[in-house]
Design goal:
By secondary structure, the chain is mostly beta strands. The protein contains four helices and 27 strands. Strands 1, 2, 3, 4, 5, 24, 25, 26 and 27 form a nine-stranded mixed beta sheet that branches. Strands 6, 7, 10, 11 and 14 form a five-stranded antiparallel beta sheet that branches. Strands 15-16-17-18-22 form a five-stranded mixed beta sheet, with no helix packed on it. InterPro entries: DUF3616.
């Protein structure tokens, strides 16, 4: 079955958001998008009568205005994973270090020195819970410091020793990879899926890297809000045989956990959507073999473009968005994604 085109209006935000999208979450008629750069999300609304094939009215959601973040408003958050559950929007930054890019026009003698430059990018170390307030045009984040009845205020996990990096510093599997850039098979959070409160409320983080001897890693963290901070109460690792691929995004589909899988390195493919039965409702086992992973669909990739990066579950099917979209996905101020219809 071929996917259907989904048109996302980016409008005036297309130049600043770029056309690279790394995360998506949908609640009702509202869509939140994570551009690949910057420190803001985008909020879109479903086109009247357009079903899931058209989304419009883009608005910027500055993360610095919604939660207390370290650094300046211009610092890159690199939001990679989004999920909406129990009235809250969860945002996961990549937490990854960044190696200097070699540009096409670089002199040969400059390649080595550029590749030696690695920035830890501490502004990317974000895991935040943002309460949403319902309004006439759907849910919205509230300004940092404000509360929503029954949900409280925004909270984030510390970026230092009391956060994820501190908890993994001495980890036998992941500790050695924390300072390695994500695109070099280093530590890189690319997806988040949060269990509903009645299912335990755990936060599942999908890692693009490292992939260890062909096994990808899911991290499940237990957190609780304490004022404007999330407190890390527990962390467990789960190894998944994705046949050498890493996690590019996660999404909940009822009781199941869907994994958008792709290369950890800068490669064109393969890419596929996979299903872990019961993974969104029940504790994950320590290891999940390849035989326990169900293939939902293979996802086409381009040559140097169209790398699947975002996954969301809609009533009509599965939405896949792409990093480095091909020219045919760019229609003026619109970006075109793929909707894989549910089997009838």
């Amino acid at each position: 079955m071929s996917p259907l085109p989904v048109r996302l209006e980016l409008g005036a935000y297309a130049p600043t958001a770029g056309v690279d999208l790394s995360g998506v979450a949908v609640v009702g008629d509202t869509m939140f998008l994570a551009p690949d750069e910057g420190s803001a999300l985008l909020r879109l609304r479903r086109e009247p009568g357009g079903g899931s094939l058209g989304w419009e009215a883009p608005e910027e959601v500055p993360l610095h205005g919604a939660v207390d973040l370290k650094g300046d408003a211009e610092d890159e958050v690199d939001a990679e994973g989004l999920d909406v559950v129990d009235g809250c929007l969860w945002v996961a930054g990549s937490h990854s270090a960044k190696r200097k890019r070699v540009k096409a026009e670089s002199e040969r003698d400059d390649v080595g020195p550029r590749l030696a430059e690695v920035d830890p990018q501490r502004s990317r170390r974000v895991l935040a819970r943002l309460p949403l307030r319902d309004g006439p045009d759907g849910p919205r984040t509230v300004p940092a410091g404000e509360t929503v009845p029954g949900l409280g205020g925004a909270a984030r996990l510390p970026s230092g020793r009391k956060g994820l990096m501190g908890a993994l510093a001495e980890d036998e599997h992941l500790g050695p990879f924390l300072g390695i850039p994500g695109k070099d098979n280093g530590f890189d959070v690319e997806g988040v899926a949060v269990r509903e409160a009645h299912a335990g409320g755990g936060v599942i983080l999908g890692l693009r890297g490292p992939v260890l001897r062909g096994w990808a890693v899911l991290l499940e963290v237990t957190v609780r809000a304490d004022g404007p901070k999330l407190v890390l109460d527990g962390l467990t690792k789960h190894f998944v045989d994705l046949e050498g691929l890493g996690v590019r995004d996660l999404a909940r589909d009822g009781d199941d956990l869907l994994v958008l899988a792709g290369p950890t390195m800068v490669l064109d493919g393969p890419a596929r959507v996979l299903r872990l039965r019961g993974g969104a409702a029940n504790p994950l086992p320590p290891a999940i073999t390849a035989g326990e992973v169900e293939l939902v669909t293979e996802v086409a990739v381009g040559r140097g473009c169209d790398r699947p990066e975002g996954l969301a579950v809609l009533p009509e099917g599965l939405l896949v968005l792409h990093d480095t979209p091909a020219p045919h996905r760019l229609e003026g101020e619109h970006l075109v994604g793929d909707l894989w219809p549910r089997a009838s």
